[in-house]
Amino acid sequence: MTHLTALYLRLANERTRLLEATNANEIELRKVWIKQMEKEIEGEIEFLEKNGLFNKEPLPDMDADELLKELLG
Questions:
Q1: Could you tell me if 44 and 7 are in contact, meaning their C-beta atoms sit under 8 angstroms apart?
Q2: Are 35 and 24 in contact, with CB atoms under 8 Å apart?
Q3: What is the residue-level pLDDT of the chain in tens, covering all 73 positions?
Q4: Other CB atoms within 10 Å distance of the CB of residue 27
Q5: Phi first, then psi: what are they for 67, rounded to 5°?
Q6: What is the pLDDT of residue 57?
Q7: Following CA atoms 10, 11, 12, 18 in sequence, which dihedral angle do they give, to the nearest 10 degrees?
Q8: For residues 6 and 47, what is the distance between their CA atoms, to the nearest angstrom?
Q9: Per-domain residue ranges of the chain
Q10: Is 70 left (phi over 0), alpha (psi -120 to 50) or beta?
Q11: How many Cα neighbours within 13 Å face the side chain of 59?
Q12: What is the DSSP string of 11-50?
């Protein structure tokens, strides 16, 4: 998951740089980079799912007692 985390961090940083950009050319370039990064993240998630290393389903809501019971199960 380290690679996916790095991709998300890179995307977040690039979105911040886009917000700070003032030059029209830079803004357009950063928008393209962001789209490319989003596609790369999608590809990484697909790869991880195919190999059983990622699940898009949200985790169930549990309070602390339920979680402890599940962990000690």
A1: yes
A2: no
A3: 589 999 999 999 999 999 999 999 999 999 999 999 999 999 999 999 999 888 888 778 888 999 899 889 8
A4: 13
A5: -65, -45
A6: 82
A7: 110
A8: 16
A9: 2-72
A10: alpha
A11: 7
A12: HHHHHHHHHH--SHHHHHHHHHHHHHHHHHHHHHHHHHHH
Q: How far apart are the first and last CA of the chain?
A: 26
CB 49 within 8 A of CB 40: no
SS3 content of the chain, % helix, strand, coil (to 5): 75, 0, 25
Q: In this structure, are residues 37 and 31 in contact, taking their beta carbons and an 8 Å threshold?
A: no
Amino acid at 70: E
Whether 18 contacts 27, CB under 8 Å: yes
- Residue 33 near residue 14 (C-beta atoms within 8 A): yes
